[in-house]
Amino acid sequence: MADRYLSFTATAPGRFLTRRLGLPQPASLVRWSPERPSLTGTLLHLTAGTSALDLSPVLARTGLGPGTAAPAAVVLDATGVRDVETLAEVHAALHPVVRSVAASGRIVLLGTPLDAGDHQQAAVQQALEGFTRSLGKEIGRGRTVNLVRVRDAGGAESTLRFLLSPRSAYVSGQVVEVGGGPAYTGDWERPLAGRTALVTGGARGIGAAVAETLARDGADVVVLDVPQAEADARLLAERIGGRALALDITAADAGERIAAELPDGLDVLIHNAGITRDRRLVNMPAERWSSVLDVNLASVLRTTDALFAKGTLRPGGRIVATASIAGLAGNAGQTNYGASKAGIAGWVRALAPRAADEHGVTVNAVAPGFIETKMTAAVPLFIREAGRRMNSLAQGGIPADVAETTAWLAHPASGAVNGQVVRVCGQSLLGA
Fold first, then answer.
1. Is 337 known to be catalytic?
2. Segment 298-327 mean pLDDT
3. PROSITE patterns under this entry (predicted)?
4. How does strand 42-49 pair with strand 144-150?
5. In a domain, 6, yes or no
6. The Cα angle at residue 354 between residues 351 and 356, in degrees rounded to 5
7. In total, how many domains does the chain have?
8. pTM
């Protein structure tokens, strides 16, 4: 369903009226397209404190360069901020330039992991998180602000490329921790060429967008969905040059059957299948509870364990699961759904280090907010409008926003990103 309010505010009368009434004024977001693969404009690189990080080679490959025009992006290296005095340099660096950042521009702060042995460093590096989220809520005009806790420039390149591009249009107010690693020397245009990806719940909506995006990036995509959606799955698979697999992911032998279908192994596993059965707890029968937990959480745990046991997930592989801000902030009428999606977040954080050590596989999650799908189009008008406006970008996202974030986490250059739960919600006012 079209966002008529967004269209109205793009007109001169709409801008005038909403400004006079103090109503949200969402900006049309610049998203990735073949014609516009990168932001247009200059990149301003600033430093607070004394940094040992050499970002110049990485930033030079983002498609943005130095210049005197209004910056399309600002990168502030605050890895050298270790006390309250140098924290003031963050204000000094950004205060003069924030207003000049172009519409749909990007601000990325770089910090370091918190040092448990240095309470002053931990305090001011944590302060960067509150600064980032507060600036994201006030900056407006479709601009985003994110914080990356980084160990070295090589491991951070895929994350910086993502956050400094149109692919991250609906990702703001996020804190991503990135480990160390060698620089990526592969193909940035088709990084998944020669790799096999499986997307559960892939026939429609967000799952279909993920399948299309991974195929764009070169993957051989297996579109998995329930037998009732087999026709849609086959049509999509034919369109993207992939394969369809009709399978109930909750079946006890689902993992074994997937392994049998992929005898040569799997590189990218996207756990996207999910259902809702909303009702307040006092009115929720056991079946509504158990069906949601089985599809959204138990099937993820069972299937992943089976694929690891079978050796189907190859070293260098990526697992990306779909959580939700409902699991982070809670939502009335969704105790079952919120529990299942919070469970995904806990599973990611616990499994990620072990999967990396034992299998060479990373595990991350995306947590969508209000995304414009057929499901949200059926939500009552006033609830739908609240969902759209209750974020820093004052609009809903689209399935491609979740798909682009998933593709970043699935990228072979993203091996330093592990155990992260990244919200794709336009910096929702709900949750952290």
1. yes
2. 97
3. ADH_SHORT
4. unpaired
5. no
6. 105
7. 2
8. 0.96
